[in-house]
Amino acid sequence: MSDSTTSTTPNILGTDPIGKLLLKYSLPAIVASLATSLYNIVDSIFIGRGVGPMAISGLAITFPLMNLVIGFCTLIAVGGATISSIFLGQKNIARATDVVNNVMILCVIHSFVFGGLTLLFLDPILYFFGATEDTIPYAREFMRVILYGTPISYIFIGLNNLMRATGYPEKAMVSALLSVGVNVVLAPIFIFVFDWGIAGAATATICGQFVAFIWVFSHFLSKKSYVHFEPRDRYLSPQILKRIYSIGLSPFLMNCCACLVVVFLNKALLHSAGDMGNIAVGSYGIINRTTMFFVMIVFGVTQGMQPILGFNFGAGRWDRVKQTLSKGIWIGALITAIGCAMTELFPDVISSMFTTDDNMINIARHGFRIYFICYPVVGAQIVIQNYFQSIGKPKLSIFLSLTRQLIFLLPLLWILPDYFGVEGVWASMAGSDMLAFILAIATLVVTTKHYNKRFIKPIANA
Fold first, then answer.
1. How far is residue 371's CA from residue 377's CA, in Å, rounded to a whole number?
2. Do 104 and 73 contact (CB within 8 A), yes or no?
């Protein structure tokens, strides 16, 4: 590599002020995440008002399966993005290029294996997730289209994460905006004009991702890109595969936990609400979409932090790692605090955007006011969890993700609904968030003291 090449975009991660870098890398990721969140909300609004309240419940049943779909992709995407940032911090461009080739092949393999197997057993999976005879037609119709499009979705998501990690946050933002923009334009046409129902919403999703896929793929084909496809480089390298899977295991398990938790939540709501079970599941669907709106913005912050943390960790700049983490925690907490205020003050306004069903709005109101009590700490917990992932410490990241979504939640979900009914379901989620936050802070304090005692040296074989 020439000096002119090695002095390009990624190297500013080790020299520019942290605040400036967070703005440069996080803002595009936040915009992209915000656009994706808005799409999910708008899509649900189209489905709720264009198809009906039972379609909202059917869509809610697909959430755990969608989490699994995303999980098998982020397993590759996040692991690949993290180690590519570390390699760039070590100025090892050849290894970063190998990562791109490996991520591409893994995305294709995962999409066909996971998508094909899920299609074969779709109905049993949906019934396991809480579908009933009233909701399964909608859930099945939606997921069939999504699963047929997994090869496009996986390659788009996998390469888009690498695009951001290798120094192109603005281009990564554009690809997300392309996906969302096409989706939002086509969804009402497919639902209301073509009368394709919930399948129209899913088809619009795949169309949007296909346009974004073309944009991202063309970036990595271009020799002008800092890291791009090199056919002569290695594919399915055992060492790189091991690193991708070990680091990507944290977000994968997080999505698996989210999948499992939604199954328990759906079943708890069906049991606690009696005849109103399907409506309660639909109410949770509204709460979940709203929750993810703010969580996705926090994810935008962590996506922007990831290349900064990974590069400086790889370069041995512990002072810059700490600065990035501190700023990220405060930003994450502020975002979810805003979410808490909005849902506590305007629960009916939010619910009414999705449905006109009074029962669903009433159940969602109680859910908003109970669950979001502890919501301000969620942003900080997510940032801390992703921090460990970004510096190549997947075991701690996995542990912290399990505490919030499994270890603390399931016992509370087993106990509280028996005493408080549906309100106990919402309280279980709030209690789990607070306990996970406390443990995340304690873990961070201990590990920071450890790193302060020995200044991190550049990693020889990251």
1. 12
2. no
The alpha carbons of the chain give a radius of gyration, in whole angstroms, of: 21
- The string over 51-74, giving b where at least 16 C-beta atoms fall within 10 Å of a residue's C-beta and e elsewhere, is bbbbbbbbbbbbbbbbbbbbbbbb
Give the number of other CB atoms < 10 A from CB of residue 270.
16
CA dihedral 295, 296, 299, 301 (to 10 degrees): -100
| Span 39-62, pLDDT tens digits | 778 888 889 888 888 898 898 889
Whole-angstrom distance, CA of residue 56 vs CA of residue 43: 10
Q: From residue 442, how far is each of 129, 400, 404 by CA, in Å?
A: 34, 11, 14
Percentages of the chain per state (helix, strand, coil), in multiples of 5: 85, 0, 15
Give tens-digit pLDDT for 437-459: 999 999 999 988 877 775 444 44
d(CA 456, CA 78): 23
**Local confidence band at 234 (pLDDT 50, 70, 90 cut-offs):** low
Between the alpha carbon of residue 80 and those of residues 88, 165, 238, 241, 245, the distances in Å are 12, 9, 13, 9, 9
Number of residues that make up the chain: 462
Q: Quick: pLDDT tens for 81-100.
A: 888 888 887 888 888 888 88
Compute the mean pLDDT over every residue in the chain, rounded to the nearest whole number: 87
Alpha-carbon span 371 to 350, nearest angstrom:
15
Quote the tokens at residue 441.
């802070």
- Statement: residue 9 has pLDDT above 70: no
Residue 459 Cα to chain centre, angstroms = 28
Distance between CA atoms of 312 and 25, rounded to whole angstroms? 14
* Amino acid at the residue 213: F
Cα–Cα separations (whole angstroms), residue 206 to 149, 180, 209:
6, 10, 5
- Distance, in Å, from the CA atom of 179 to the CA atom of 40, rounded to the nearest integer, reads 12
d(CA 406, CA 436): 10
CA distances from 10 to 127, 324, 343, 448 (A): 47, 16, 39, 26
Task: List, in sequence order, the alpha helices (H) in 52-92.
Answer: 53-89
Q: Determine the Cα–Cα distance for residues 367 and 351; give it in Å rounded to an integer.
A: 11
Name the band, by pLDDT with cuts 50, 70 and 90, for residue 460.
very low
Distances in Å between the Cα of 352 and the Cα atoms of 56, 356, 362 are 13, 6, 10
Query: Taking CA 161 as the corner, what is the angle to CA 399 and CA 375, rounded to the nearest 5 degrees?
Result: 45
Tell which wins on pLDDT, 256 or 337.
337
* Token pair belonging to 228: 């791009």
| Residue 263, token pair as written in the block | 């199954």
With contact defined as beta carbons under 8 Å apart, do 104 and 158 qualify? yes
Query: Does residue 462 register a pLDDT over 60?
Result: no
Q: Which pLDDT band, with edges at 50, 70 and 90, does 189 fall under? A: very high
